[in-house]
Design a protein that fits this description.
With 226 residues, the protein is α/β, with parallel strands linked by helices. The protein has two domains: 87 residues, Rossmann fold; 128 residues, paralog of FGE (formylglycine-generating enzyme) (Alpha-Beta Complex). It is 13% helix and 17% strand. It contains three helices and eight strands. The strands form two sheets. The chain has a four-stranded mixed sheet, covered by helices on one side. Strands 7-6-5-8 form a four-stranded mixed sheet, with no helix packed on it. Strand 3 and strand 4 form a beta hairpin. The longest helix is centred in the first third of the chain and has 15 residues.
């Protein structure tokens, strides 16, 4: 090697032999740290040795946690290498140890106590995103626990009239457990959800104090003729 290359190798050796500290962990895109340093990411299948490689390069035994169970690591871990480089240990793919509900929706066990941007989870069979979980869906139906005992069998709709409450909310949210993530799971809207709405009269659908509730906007794919 040339003298310049030798110097670069020695500088890299000193860098990786120096201080390296865990500084951040993230389980979602919203939790990622700000970009401050160039990053080197370690990506691969579960149990392929990514964390072990981080430990070997930095001369540590336990800087990056090594799991014996494929798919057990779900967090993206960030390590500051001497203030000059960021090492990023990514969760393995191929053997993700998570439930079907967590793979397809945001719920209490994976949402980090907050709603998420729509469309980050796979759509359902009809191409609709976030039907279950994330934000529970506020509907135009009046909430009546006994309504379906006597309702029409086809397209039942319990008209609430001009009443603001109670409307039916469906599908579960980021604040619910997996059994609540289904279209048949209903709950009633409450006046307390709009406590901080400054409008008078209050909005029918703007729930200032219910961050677990949303509504779905539907539009035609083709513009109707004028």
């Amino acid at each position: 090697m040339t003298e310049a290359a030798d110097a670069q190798v020695e500088a890299a050796r000193k860098l990786f032999a120096g201080a390296c500290d865990f500084i951040w962990g993230a389980t979602s895109a919203e939790q990622l740290p700000p970009d401050k340093l160039n990053e080197v990411a370690f990506v691969g299948r579960s149990n392929a040795g990514k964390s072990s490689l981080v430990n070997a390069l930095t001369g540590r035994k336990s800087l990056a946690r090594v799991s014996q169970t494929p798919g057990a690591t779900r967090q993206i871990n960030f390590f500051d290498l001497g203030g000059k480089l960021m090492l990023v240990d990514l969760p393995g793919y191929g053997f993700a140890k998570r439930s079907k509900a967590e793979a397809n929706a945001w719920l209490r066990s994976n949402a980090g106590e907050q709603p998420h941007v729509g469309g980050l989870k796979p759509p359902n069979a009809w191409g609709l995103f976030d039907v279950h979980g994330n934000a529970a869906e506020w509907t135009g139906d009046k909430y009546d626990a006994a309504y379906y005992a006597t309702s029409p069998k086809t397209n039942p709709f319990d008209d609430p009239g001009a009443a603001l409450y109670p409307h039916a909310v469906r599908g579960g949210s980021w604040d619910d457990d997996a059994p609540r993530l289904r279209s048949a799971a209903r709950r009633t809207s409450m006046e307390a959800w709009s406590r901080r709405d400054p409008q008078n009269p209050k909005s029918l659908w703007w729930h200032t104090d219910a961050t677990f509730v949303g509504f779905r906007v539907v539009a035609e794919m083709d513009n109707p003729p004028r």
